[in-house]
Specification:
Elements: E1 2-7, H1 11-25, E2 32-33, E3 41-48, H2 52-60, E4 67-77, E5 85-92, H3 94-107, E6 122-127, H4 146-153, E7 159-165, E8 167-176, E9 179-189
Antiparallel strand pairs: 1-3, 1-8, 2-6, 4-5, 4-7, 5-6, 8-9
Length: about 190
């Protein structure tokens, strides 16, 4: 099973982000746009594993507070000049980093390593190419994202709303030719 741990987002925020995504889609029709049904905030990617029962038991021990989240602004990874991913920014209180740390600590004894970089929450809206830019020599941005980037520079940064997450979720990810499909396997309360 291919697994990850994430936060879900409120329906009203999901709807506002989906509308924005639809408005931007015409500017970059050649990129792969993420469907709103798959919007989530990844806390830790686990990859392929057969340790489902052990993972669920470990996650049940996580003790963390609810997390306040604000969805605003957009950007590109790895940089605007070499953009391969278009995202919505997420601002949070200190509880998000604490939650990510607690999940990492709970899963470490099972052999899952946390990324060593500082956790930067975001919501992916689109990807250009297969993970590598397909730009022509001299291009600074993958061609599929250049018109989108130019339009966004002329717009005020969008605001999508604020929510409080009261649970985190263990998801299964199934890769299909139409993209990833996610299924909720277990939900864990934040208290």
């Amino acid at each position: 099973m291919r697994l990850f741990v994430a936060l879900d987002i409120d329906a009203a925020i999901r709807e506002r982000i989906a509308q924005f995504r639809d408005d931007m889609r015409a500017l970059a029709p050649a990129v792969r746009w993420v469907g709103p049904e798959t919007f989530h905030i990844t806390l830790q990617f686990l990859g392929e594993t057969t340790k489902l029962d052990e993972i669920q038991s470990a996650l049940a021990t996580v003790n963390a507070a609810p997390v306040s989240l604000s969805f605003r602004a957009t950007g590109f990874f790895p940089t605007p000049q070499r953009a391969r991913v278009f995202w919505v920014g997420i601002e949070s209180d200190e509880h998000l980093q604490s939650l990510a740390n607690a999940i990492g600590d709970a899963l470490a004894p099972l052999g899952f390593k946390r990324e060593q970089e500082v956790y930067h929450p975001h919501l992916t809206l689109a990807r250009a190419g297969s993970g590598r830019p397909h730009s022509k020599p001299g291009d600074k941005v993958a061609p599929g994202l250049q018109p989108l980037r130019a339009q966004l520079e002329a717009m005020p940064q969008p605001e999508f709303g604020t929510m409080t997450a009261h649970e985190f979720i263990l998801y299964q990810s199934t890769l299909t030719p139409q993209g990833s499909r996610y299924a909720k396997l277990a939900t864990f309360p934040l208290r």
